[in-house]
Design brief:
With 247 residues, the chain is of the alpha/beta class. It contains 9 helices and 7 strands. It has a 7-stranded parallel β-sheet, sandwiched between helices. The radius of gyration is 17 Å and the shape is globular. It binds acetoacetyl-coenzyme A. Acetoacetyl-coenzyme A binds next to helix 5 and helix 7.
């Protein structure tokens, strides 16, 4: 690799996101992420800089197409054209469907799924022109198996893989691979927000007997970005401790 590749990880300040940022920086990529809360993001960036992990941060709301277009412009002007995109930003608004509000539905779909349009659209033409790109969607076990209380989240996460396999077909001849990583229950703030008694029942269903670690997900993202992974496209890699083994 003659020049350092540029990677954009959305939601990089979050639990799995921070581990992905560290992984990609460790692989020698220049890494950028978006933020909505400037003070929180500055503190996060300074902490990582102190560990020797430089990250460029740009204001951007992944649920808003215009905000994403200006975020990508800012990153490309300051860091360089985006070669690697990890669509990782995601939220939950859990509720059984018969009680779910439109707000709970649309916030999740906008942040988890429509974000794939909003962030990928401004970077895809550059990747096609340069004939190289890597795109990874961070989906979820619950997009594969469904989950009581997550009709909004499961629909958005299943949609992400539909996006992956279409984009993979359209862009293969431009040297762009597009893949999905589907984490199971990882010990982040998002999972720790699930009521304890519910969470304990979920962990009891995991054959490997514990929650995942963010680094274990980040490792899989790194796998798809490795030069030796250049013949893998349209794949979904499930990492869930054996919780769901469908294929
Ligand atoms: N299967 C069958 N029944 C279930 C059930 C399940 N998995 N979960 C709950 N129920 C039942 C309860 O036993 C209860 O039954 P009774 O009324 O007979 O006692 C009933 O459903 C409760 O239903 P309510 O509509 O009253 O729901 P609630 O307001 O109590 O909350 C919930 C339900 C929001 C689904 C709550 O149980 C919850 O938060 N569950 C966890 C959902 C989850 O796994 N979220 C994952 C977040 S992390 C993440 O998303 C990351 C990732 O990618 C993995």
């Amino acid at each position: 690799m003659s020049q350092q590749r540029v990677a954009l990880v959305t939601g990089g300040t979050g639990g799995i996101g921070t581990a992905i940022v560290r992984q990609l920086a460790g692989m020698g990529f220049k890494v950028a992420t978006n933020y909505r809360d400037e003070a929180k993001a500055n503190a996060w960036r300074d902490k990582l800089a102190g560990e020797g992990v430089p990250v460029f941060i740009a204001k951007g709301d992944v649920s808003d197409p215009e905000s994403c277009a200006s975020m990508v412009r800012e990153i490309e002007a300051n860091v360089g054209p985006v070669d690697i995109l990890v669509n990782n930003a995601g939220i939950t608004r859990d509720s059984t469907f018969h009680k779910m509000t439109y707000q709970q539905w649309i916030e999740v779909v906008n942040t988890n799924l429509n974000s794939c349009f909003n962030v990928t659209r401004p970077v895809i033409e550059g990747m096609r022109a340069r004939k190289w790109g890597r795109i990874v969607q961070i989906s979820s076990i619950n997009g594969q198996k469904g989950q009581y209380g997550q009709a909004n989240y499961a629909a958005s996460k299943a949609g992400m893989h539909g996006f992956t396999i279409s984009l993979a077909q359209e862009n293969a001849r431009f040297g762009i691979t597009v893949n999905t990583v589907s984490p199971g229950y990882v010990g982040t703030d998002m999972v720790m927000a699930v009521p304890e008694e519910v969470r304990e029942k979920i962990v009891a269903q995991i054959p490997l007997g514990r929650l995942g670690k963010p680094e274990e997900i980040a490792h899989a993202v790194g796998f798809f970005l490795d030069d030796n992974a250049s013949w893998i496209t349209g794949a979904n890699l499930a990492i869930n401790g054996g919780h769901y083994m469908g294929w």
